[in-house]
Design goal:
With 605 residues, the protein is mainly α. The chain has 21 helices and 4 strands. It folds into 4 domains: 78 residues, no CATH class; 210 residues, Growth Hormone, Chain: A, CATH 1.20.1250.20; 45 residues, no CATH class; 234 residues, Growth Hormone, Chain: A (Up-down Bundle), CATH 1.20.1250. It is globular, with a radius of gyration of 27 Å. Keywords: Membrane, Transmembrane, Transmembrane helix. It comes from Skeletonema marinoi.
């Protein structure tokens, strides 16, 4: 449907039967949709029906507006000869979507995602050494313990700020203007202050400007980097027509995962390696990249689809959520407060409540993110623990000076990039041509399967490492980790995009940034990390070497610890996740949710 030519769309319009030329209002929306659903229609009219459901207006008129690309307001679509945009009618206004959003403007947002992730991973890689003075004497001079606490505080703020950013983007100024704020008020100043503080004596005085450094990395950066992380993907996904380009949204989240991997690669082979020669040079490189992408984002302003905020409906949605928890309601018959069970049903106008049904459903959908994403919590445990095992293992392998464990992560990132490109350019188009649909749970299950193989291969390599050292006293090559990271790179493009895409679809249109924060920061980085910490605390003895060493960063200590038991545990959790998602009740539940939100999106618009 999305690949139709301009002529094909116009020719299809002639097959649409127009039963009522008057536009519909909210009261007869349901009747029109019921009639449309019972009337037979050929498959090629699916897109046209989708436009009708979303616009709520006349079928033929909606199609003409979607197909018309000229500027003469005659709806003939003849000027220029080639269709360049799609019209979208909603309660917030009319919006024009490009036929090729990626080329039109989304590539800028993907580049912004890449730069933000590069900064995030770059600071993670460089800060421990910089804070403790391992790179240069001009540093905060923290102890290892204080440096870890400092980084933990920064990480905690990065995971907390998105909820504040979500409220600002969804309820106050909109996602576009919130991006402008986080870029120019927080992200750029943070990058500049971090760079200035790292240059010896640049700001005057004979001591390290610790307060300047704290303002940059501890106060400004969480709002800058954390804000971009929360908004960027959501704002980019909104550049696609929600009906005619629905399948492109699925592919976009794959591209977002590819951009994430490329950002991690830039941090590893660019920022981290440059820091070995010059920390100020590395921080300056980061600041320049952030500045360039911010200007580029602003330069493309006129190309973005920026939806208007409907403040009254936003407030009513919050009101619906609050009223649902009360144990009373206002009786429409008696006009007084009466006891009632907590729940959303009593708030709906159709049940005598005071709030439109679609706004109550929007509040329900925001909470629905929690049980839906709760299905994937087991997966967050093994995929967030990858470096916990791979980095200590790398210290027990022989390798060139620069080809260390941190650099080896680029092997996984390279695999993610290659697999993501193949999925979007080859496999998914092939499935579309063959009319093969892979549901969300199965795509995540495929990723969980590859993650299981990842940990099993890691276990096999680890056993070889221990055996060779026990027999010969030698270390095996770090090249073995290339095989391990290959399967890790295979896993990520399968399970990360569908999880993020599902959150985007389930979240109501007014709260998509806030919904993204619930998914990434509360469900994945919150609950998942809490469970992981509990597991590691309970089984911490497996990480303790028995030769008296304080850590496992040497092969003598590593081979006395039982980290291989953890690898089998992570493989078991990944396998459980894959099998769990293949259960028919789980698959049906997710499909019902997806159908429910499709109807909800139609009602919202």
């Amino acid at each position: 449907n999305l690949g139709r030519s301009h002529k094909h769309i116009l020719s299809s319009m002639t097959e649409v039967k127009d039963n009522n030329n008057a536009p519909t209002d909210d009261d007869d929306w349901g009747d029109n949709n019921k009639a449309a659903s019972t009337a037979p229609s050929p498959p090629e009219l699916e897109v046209e029906e989708a436009v009708v459901n979303e616009s709520g207006g006349d079928e033929e008129e909606a199609l003409k507006e979607a197909a018309d690309d000229d500027d003469d307001d005659d709806d003939d679509g003849d000027e220029g000869g080639v269709k360049t945009s799609l019209m979208w009618k909603s309660r917030g206004g009319n919006y024009d979507f490009s036929l090729e959003p990626i080329k039109h403007c989304v590539w800028v947002l993907l580049f912004l995602r890449l730069v933000e992730r590069a900064s995030f991973y770059g600071y993670q890689l460089i800060s421990p050494g910089f804070n403790t003075g391992q790179y240069q004497s001009w540093s905060p001079g923290f102890s290892n313990e204080k440096s870890a606490q400092f980084q933990a505080t920064t990480f905690a703020l990065v995971n907390t700020v998105p909820f504040i950013i979500g409220v600002g983007a969804d309820c106050l100024i909109g996602d576009y203007w919130m991006l402008i704020v986080v870029l120019f008020v927080f992200f750029i100043p943070a990058s500049i202050l971090i760079f200035l503080s790292s240059w010896p004596f640049l700001l005057g005085g004979g001591t390290f400007p610790l307060e300047v450094y704290k303002v940059g990395i501890l106060y400004l950066y969480p709002f800058g980097g954390g804000g971009v992380d929360s908004i960027c993907d959501i704002f980019a996904a909104k550049q696609f027509h929600p009906i005619l380009q629905d399948d492109q949204i699925e592919k976009f989240f794959v591209w977002a995962t590819v951009a994430n991997a490329m950002g991690s690669t830039l941090a590893t082979v660019g920022y981290a390696l440059l820091a070995n020669a010059s920390v100020p040079g590395s921080f300056l490189f980061m600041a320049i990249m952030v500045f360039i992408v911010s200007l580029l984002f602003t330069f493309y302003t006129k190309r973005y689809v920026v939806r208007k905020l409907l403040y009254k409906e936003i407030l009513l949605t919050w009101k619906a959520g609050l009223q649902s928890i009360f144990c009373w309601k206002k009786s429409p018959e008696e006009g007084r407060i009466v006891p009632a069970k907590p729940g959303f049903a009593k708030v709906k106008a159709s049940n005598g409540g005071g709030i439109r049904d679609d706004l109550v459903d929007a509040a329900m959908r925001l909470l629905l993110i929690i049980p839906v994403q709760g299905l994937f919590i087991p997966l967050s445990i093994p995929y967030s623990s990858i470096l916990t095992f791979m980095l200590p293992q790398s210290y027990s392998m022989k390798h060139p000076e620069l080809l260390n464990g941190t650099f080896m992560v680029t092997m996984m990132n390279a695999t993610i990039v290659i697999v993501g490109i193949l999925l979007n350019k080859t496999f998914y188009p092939y499935f579309e041509r063959k009319n093969i649909s892979i549901c969300t749970t199965r795509r995540v299950a495929i990723g969980a399967f590859f993650l299981t193989v990842f940990y099993l291969v890691m276990y096999g390599v680890d056993r070889r490492l221990r055996r060779v050292y026990a027999e010969t006293g030698e270390m095996i090559s770090i090249g073995w980790q290339v095989l391990i990271y290959f399967f890790g790179g295979m896993a990520f493009p399968f399970f990360i995009p569908p999880m993020d895409e599902l959150t985007f679809r389930v979240s109501p249109s007014e709260y998509k940034v806030f919904g993204n924060a619930i998914n990434k920061k509360f469900m994945q980085a919150g609950i998942g990390a809490f469970i992981s910490k509990a597991i590691f605390s309970a089984l911490g003895s497996w990480f303790q070497p028995t030769n008296g060493a304080s850590n496992i960063m040497s092969i003598e200590a590593y081979t006395t610890a039982k980290t291989d038991n953890f690898m089998l545990l992570m493989a078991a959790i990944s396998a459980f996740q894959a099998l769990f998602l293949l259960l028919p009740p789980v698959e049906k539940f997710v499909k019902r949710v997806e159908e429910y939100v499709k109807v909800g999106n139609s009602r919202e618009e």
